[in-house]
Amino acid sequence: MICRAKVVEKNGSHALVRVARVNCAECGGCGLLARDREHTMEFDAVDRIGAREGDEVLLKVPSRRLTLSYLAVFGLPLLVMAATFFAAAAVYGAVSGGDGTAVGILVAVASALLALYGGVKLADRMGLSPVIVEVIAAEDAGCDDEYKGKVL
Q1: Each residue of 94-109: b (16+ CB within 10 Å) or e?
Q2: Domain boundaries, position 7
Q3: Series of mean pLDDT values for 10-residue runs along the chain (152 residues)
């Protein structure tokens, strides 16, 4: 899905963009990436073309592969946390003969944080983040009727 957005903040190769919620109700591509606002949504997008703060841009939102992004960022850490908890508790219990719950919790939390970092990097490498594809001169941010419903 392609939508119009406004660059709110620039951070290296990423930009915080704002999209009008009322104009993009049909898209649904932003999903959980959006930060709740009253009439707009803001989320982080990859900026490979050098957009500046205040620019109106065309934004490609990979709506079909968004579920994979959620799984990589949220599901992977949960699976890793559960697996490392049981493994660490079992190993500690077998070695020391005591209860390994506390050690399992510490190892699980540490491994989940590492898996979260890895999931974010994996989602970024897989091209699952929204991407700024073009800087345009427009008056308002929202879905462009010319692009509405098209998936790139």
Answers
A1: eeeeeebeebbeebbe
A2: 2-62+129-136
A3: 85 85 54 54 83 87 71 90 94 88 93 92 76 72 50 43
Residue 91 lies in a domain: yes
- Angstrom CA distances, 86 to 81, 98, 102, 108, 134, stand at 9, 14, 11, 9, 48
CB atoms within 10 A of CB 7: 22
CB 27, CB 61: distance < 8 Å: yes
| Residues 6 and 58 reside in one and the same domain | yes
pTM over 0.85: no
